[in-house]
From TrEMBL, chain A:
Residues 83-268 form the ABC transmembrane type-1 domain. SUPFAM superfamilies: MetI-like (SSF161098). GO terms for molecular function: ABC-type phosphonate transporter activity. Gene3D superfamilies: MetI-like (1.10.3720.10). This is Phosphonate ABC transporter, permease protein PhnE. Belongs to the binding-protein-dependent transport system permease family. The gene is phoE. It comes from the Bacteria. Signal peptide: none annotated.
UniProtKB/TrEMBL annotation, chain B:
This is Phosphonates import ATP-binding protein PhnC. The keyword Translocase applies. CDD domains: ABC_PhnC_transporter. Pfam families: ABC_tran. Residues 251-276 are annotated as: Disordered. The keyword Transmembrane does not apply. Residues 2-245 form the ABC transporter domain. Residues 251-264 have a biased composition (Polar residues). GO terms for cellular component: membrane. PROSITE patterns: ABC_TRANSPORTER_1, ABC_TRANSPORTER_2.
Length: 282, 276
């Protein structure tokens, strides 16, 4: 009797789940179809006409770069200081933002015994810093502080603090509480529990996210040059604005940026692989 | 030495520990037995202040330790070392550092944050490890050790705290019989040589009989038995566990030499149990 009733309940539960899945699929299809027709109607020239002209500018750049011959590498070397400035902005911003993120993460996770009333405050604080893209903060700061790498650095650091803080606190929420309890039982205070119970567990993941953020921040810092923060972005904006005749310089910047980002990506993914693999957390 | 006065803990409507009162007059090895949920762990955790008590007092040297706060509370936590079922070591740190963490309470915060431990700390940690026979593992990471070895590291950490008493919350429940014996022998040895109170939650009756000077039986938060292990007959055990006639402890005994009640000759404890 009881089994029969249970069977009925399970069957109706399954039917309801299937209904929900169907509604979900229909919703997704609806959004895609309506989104496409909306954007197509708003396009000025239509997608396929634009496609034929799409490659005109890139091919112009390539032709100009080809014509400059071996001098191309000289041009590339000339942009190295600007590239270094961008890397500098990214590195300093990631370090400062990362340090802030550790503090924010430790103050916003119940799992590591953060002070209760502080948790919602720090979480909202991180939401706010994360909500504004670097570009918006940088525009705002450049307006106040003038065109220089400093406002860009502050902008990237702020966004990094929020973004990494969120990721760090999620790492915190997933750690094993037993070591913390063991240290509590020894009479260790909160900072000591964080240092020895939490940090050894989270350090590899923190560093991994930190390196990932460094990659993202190099790209972000390059873009910030467009709004006057200096570095390679500013050079790129100048050469693109120049239009015809500066194609070789534009190409040189693109190649330099591409190579740099690729190197950073490769090095950081190698390091991250090592970190999560076998290390001694000291 | 330590006196429990109507110690109570309630979780919502459920009373986990109900007005428990008893006194440990001299350094004894006390075994607390009872089925899961009887309140054994809660009782131990209240002594170490990991779980706040709802009411009652625990008096040690004239002081109510349930009223301690802040730094004095942490100092007390250092004085009553805790050994856990799951060891609660820091898995990614090496063994010797794990043991030295037992001294964190005595060190300044700033200094300890930079992982600065003195030569004395290292020497003390090594001698504690040596006493438990695992000094050779000192540089390995804690997570690389077997369960039995990890529990011995945890006991070494407890020794490092130089405590008045050791609380052991089911220290052998996740260990195989051989390692269980090593761990229980170590606890017994610490009790005898250092003359410390050892309060130990146990799941197996034969262990309680062979190692403890005194057995406290808990059922539904109440103390239903308190006496020497010789009085712990099968009938009393049935009463503690709320079991019927079919209850046969030999069926789940972890003693290697059969039922510990009939053949305890292989373990060092019985003679000591009488004198203690």
């Amino acid at each position: 009797m009881a089994v029969a009733a249970l069977e009925q309940e399970i069957m109706s539960l399954r039917k309801r789940r299937q209904l929900y899945s169907l509604i979900g699929v229909l919703l997704v299809i609806g959004v895609v179809v309506s989104g496409y027709s909306k954007s197509n109607s708003m396009n000025s020239g239509g997608f396929f006409q634009g496609l034929s002209q799409f490659f005109d500018y890139p091919s112009e750049i390539v032709v100009e770069a080809w014509q400059s011959g071996p001098a191309f590498f000289g041009i590339m070397a000339g942009f190295l200081p600007a590239m270094l400035e961008t890397l500098n902005i990214a590195a300093v911003a990631t370090l400062i933002g990362g340090a802030l993120a550790v503090v924010l993460a430790m103050a916003s996770s119940r799992n590591v015994d953060s002070w209760g009333p502080l948790i919602p405050v720090t979480r909202r604080l991180m939401d706010i810093t994360r909500a504004f893209p670097e570009l918006i903060i940088a525009l705002f700061l450049i307006f106040i502080l003038g065109s220089s790498p400093v406002p860009a650095m502050i902008a990237v650091a702020l966004h990094t603090a929020g973004a990494l803080g969120k990721l760090f606190s999620e790492v915190n929420e997933n750690i094993d509480r037993k070591p913390i309890e063991g240290l509590s039982a020894c009479g260790a205070n909160w900072l000591q529990r964080i240092r020895y119970g939490v940090m050894p567990q989270v350090a590899p993941n923190y560093l991994s996210y930190f390196l990932l953020r460094l990659e993202i921040n190099v790209r972000a810092s390059a873009i910030l040059g467009f709004v006057g923060a200096g570095g390679i972005g500013q050079e790129l904006r100048r050469t693109i604005g120049w239009g015809q005749g500066a194609g070789d310089e534009t190409a040189a910047i693109f190649v330099l940026l591409f190579i740099t980002i690729m190197i950073i990506d490769q090095v950081s993914s190698y390091l991250r692989g090592k970190l999560v693999g076998s290390d001694r957390a000291h | 030495m330590i006196q429990f006065d109507k110690v109570t803990k309630t979780f919502g409507a459920r009373t986990a520990v109900n007005k428990v009162s008893f006194t440990v007059e001299q350094p004894q090895m006390v075994g607390v037995i009872g089925r899961s949920g009887a309140g054994k762990s809660t009782l131990l955790r209240m002594i170490n202040r990991l779980t706040p008590a709802t009411s009652g007092r625990i008096i040690f040297k004239g002081e109510d330790i349930l009223a301690l706060k802040g730094a004095t509370k942490r100092r007390w936590q250092r004085d009553c070392a805790m050994v856990f079922q799951q060891f609660n070591l820091v898995p990614r740190l090496d063994v010797v550092t794990n043991v030295m963490l037992g001294r964190l309470n005595g060190h300044g915060t700033l200094k300890s944050l930079f992982n600065i431990f003195s030569k004395d700390d290292v020497a003390a940690a090594l001698s504690a490890l040596d006493r438990l026979g695992i000094a050779q593992e000192a540089t390995k990471r804690a997570e690389e050790l077997s369960g039995g070895q990890q529990q011995r590291v945890a006991i070494a950490r407890a020794l490092m705290q130089d405590p008045h008493m050791i609380l052991a919350d089911e220290p052998i429940a996740s260990l195989d019989p051989m390692n269980a014996k090593i761990v229980m022998d170590s606890l017994r040895e610490i009790h005898e040589r250092d003359n410390k109170i050892v309060l130990c939650n146990l799941h197996t009756l034969d262990t309680a009989r062979t190692y403890c000077d005194r057995v406290i039986g808990m059922r539904d938060g109440l103390i239903v038995f308190d006496g020497p292990p010789s009085e712990l007959s099968t009938d009393v055990a049935r009463e503690i566990y709320g079991a019927d006639e079919s209850f046969n402890e030999a069926a789940t005994s972890t003693s290697i030499e059969g039922n510990g009640q009939t053949n305890p000759a292989g373990v060092m404890a019985p003679a000591a149990a009488v004198s203690g």
